[in-house]
Design brief:
The radius of gyration is 19 Å and the shape is globular. The protein has one domain: Alpha-Beta Complex (tt1808, chain A). It has six helices and 13 strands. The chain is of the alpha+beta class. Helix 5 links the parallel strand 8 and strand 9. It starts with a helix and ends with a helix. The strands form four sheets. It has a six-stranded mixed sheet with strand order 3-6-8-9-10-11, with helices on both faces. The chain has a three-stranded mixed sheet with strand order 5-4-7, with no helix packed on it.
Length: 224
């Protein structure tokens, strides 16, 4: 918890009243979260963010094309190498307060080994990917970025489908729970290498263009 915020509350003469009010709000939010779990199903794209249920609109073609092209490369490579598992779209990540369904997630093998066939809520992934849209950009860049870092997500990619740019965020140190202020930006003509998935290097264009994707897949297979 932010130590400065704790000190600010404790400096108030009505600190106990404020804490009790906060506890009541937390209990009420937890009840809403449980109701969210009862309501959500495999057909609905929704998240629970800071006490609110956020229902997502159907994605545009360019959005799910990026997700499909990247997830296919990542999933095949990870399976061949036995590095873990890759999930897309409907994998619900349950963090301390919020529940997200990132566009793509990667879990290392040791973490994935504990998953059960009927599991529906998952811990913080080792890598998360979000594809920007006008509706989700602020959440992806601010709330999710901070939340993923706070829960030890080692690598975070934000993909801008219009600029065809990938912003790659890495934890400064595993114990710091914060990302570099300036991300590594990879645009058309660049390659991107995951720090969490060893050896996974692809051209940025491979997630926007099908022919480039096939060539990247062939290169990954040859290197396998």
């Amino acid at each position: 918890m932010n130590q400065g915020l704790v000190e600010k509350i404790m400096d108030q003469p009505d600190a106990l009243v404020l804490i009790e009010r906060l506890n009541a709000n937390v209990r009420e939010e937890h009840a809403r979260r449980l109701s969210f779990y009862e309501w959500i199903d495999e057909h609905t794209k929704a998240e629970f963010i800071n006490g609110q249920v956020v229902i997502h609109s159907p994605v545009k073609r360019k959005h799910w094309k990026i997700t499909d092209l990247l997830s296919s490369l990542m999933s095949i490579y990870v399976r061949i190498k036995g590095l873990g598992v890759v999930g897309t779209e409907k994998v619900m990540v349950a963090l301390t307060r919020n529940d997200y369904e990132p566009d793509i997630v990667f879990f290392k093998a040791e973490k994935a080994a504990a998953f059960t066939p009927d599991q529906v809520l998952f811990p913080a992934p080792d890598l998360a990917v979000e594809v920007l849209s006008k509706k989700t950009e602020k959440v992806d860049r601010v709330i999710k970025k901070a939340d993923y870092a706070a829960h030890g997500v080692q690598e975070y990619w934000i993909i801008d489908p219009n600029k065809q740019v990938i912003e790659q965020y890495l934890l400064v140190q595993p114990t710091d729970k914060s990302y570099f202020e300036q991300p590594f930006r990879h645009g058309p003509g660049d390659e991107i290498s995951s720090k969490v998935i060893p050896g996974f290097t692809i051209p940025v264009q491979a997630i926007f263009d099908e022919q480039a994707n096939v060539a990247a897949l062939q290169a990954l297979m040859a290197g396998a």
